[in-house]
From TrEMBL:
The lineage of its organism: Bacteria, Pseudomonadati, Pseudomonadota, Gammaproteobacteria, Enterobacterales. This is Transcriptional regulator. NCBIfam families: PRK10086.1. Belongs to the LysR transcriptional regulatory family. One of its GO terms (biological process) is DNA-templated transcription. Residues 6-171 form the LysR substrate-binding domain. PANTHER family: HTH-TYPE TRANSCRIPTIONAL REGULATOR, HTH-TYPE TRANSCRIPTIONAL REGULATOR DSDC. GO terms for molecular function: DNA-binding transcription factor activity; sequence-specific DNA binding. It comes from Salmonella enterica I. Pfam families: LysR_substrate. It comes from the Bacteria. InterPro entries: LysR-type_TF_proteobact-type, LysR_subst-bd.
Length: 172
């Protein structure tokens, strides 16, 4: 098993499949849709209280924004936040915030009161349900153009791979 955000050469790495969040599956690979995604700002309840964020978008300008710098293959490093802000006509803070190379690290930083992360709804839902995170501006989610999918090498429709892909699709 490999983890990371980089596109991997399945043949060279000796692995059977990869799971990606992106908008353009490679034409050289077989791909299977898993699920869509939406993004929304999330932070710890303490951080939201400290900056009086609950339903107050204006106070976002005083916050540290936490970025997934590799959200998808052609991401500039701040695309998630800028796409969301443009969609909802929100002015973002001038500071660039803090960048991470994985979305889960930005979310962990948000849970630890470092700032506000752009959470992937499906990946943060359990933390929202438990109260570890909150969506301070309500359900202001933006449907992503990207989606989750599984890729395999062409011709690798082996029973074990097909069974695993079916299981993944049932879980989501």
């Amino acid at each position: 098993m490999l983890t990371g955000n980089d596109n991997v050469n399945l043949q060279r790495a000796g692995i059977d499949l990869a799971i990606y969040f992106d908008d353009a599956p490679s034409a050289q690979l077989t791909h299977h849709f898993l699920m869509d995604e939406a993004i929304l700002p999330v932070c710890s309840p303490d951080y939201a209280r400290r900056f009086a964020l609950q339903d107050n978008l204006n106070n976002l300008r005083h916050c540290t924004l936490l970025h997934d710098r590799q959200a998808w293959s052609n991401d500039s490093g701040t695309d998630e936040w800028h796409s969301w802000a443009q969609h909802f006509a929100v002015n973002l803070p001038d500071s660039s915030g803090i960048g991470f190379d994985r979305s889960d690290l930005a979310v962990i930083a948000a849970m630890n009161h470092i700032g506000v992360a752009m959470g992937r709804k499906r990946l943060v839902q359990k933390r929202l349900d438990s109260g570890e995170l909150i969506a301070p501006f309500g359900d202001m989610r933006l449907k992503c153009h990207q989606h989750y999918y599984v890729t395999t090498l062409p011709g690798r429709q082996w029973p074990k791979i097909e069974a695993f892909i079916r299981w993944l699709q049932e879980q989501v």
